[in-house]
Design a protein that fits this description.
The chain is of the alpha+beta class. It is 39% helix and 33% strand. It is built from 3 helices and 6 strands. The chain has a 6-stranded antiparallel beta sheet. It is elongated.
């Protein structure tokens, strides 16, 4: 049972590094970079912070739903900064390779420990 808990923690740890929030450059047009379904963090000029999944983006506003399902609509002129969550290729590769190496080692260790009657 213990080995299953460790394995679960390892998988969660390895997968957590795959996604990162990346701020967009000022010269990028939001409607070209952000797509429906992207997860964004918007900091408004008044300091209010919103995190939500984009449902629609136009030349006037960005809209979507946050994690609890509330609808969010922000006019583009009110946006101070915006970051979009993207897959981090290097971290994803390392997580996959780490899992390929670590999981067999953990399983062999669990078999050895449990085989000796310590479980």
């Amino acid at each position: 049972m213990r080995s299953i808990n460790y394995l679960t923690l390892l998988v969660l740890f390895l997968s957590s590094g795959c996604m990162t929030m990346r701020p967009l450059d000022d010269d990028q047009a939001l409607t070209e970079v952000i797509k429906t379904g992207d997860k964004v963090e918007v900091i408004e000029k008044d300091g209010h912070i919103n995190e939500f999944t984009v449902g629609k983006i136009t030349e006037q506003f960005i809209a979507g739903n946050d994690e609890i399902g509330s609808h969010v609509t922000i006019p583009l002129e009110k946006i101070e900064t915006i970051s979009v969550e993207k897959v981090h290729g290097g971290r994803t590769t390392l997580a996959v390779l780490g899992g390929i190496v670590a999981i067999p080692i953990i399983l062999v260790g669990a078999v050895v420990v449990c085989g000796s009657g310590s479980c």
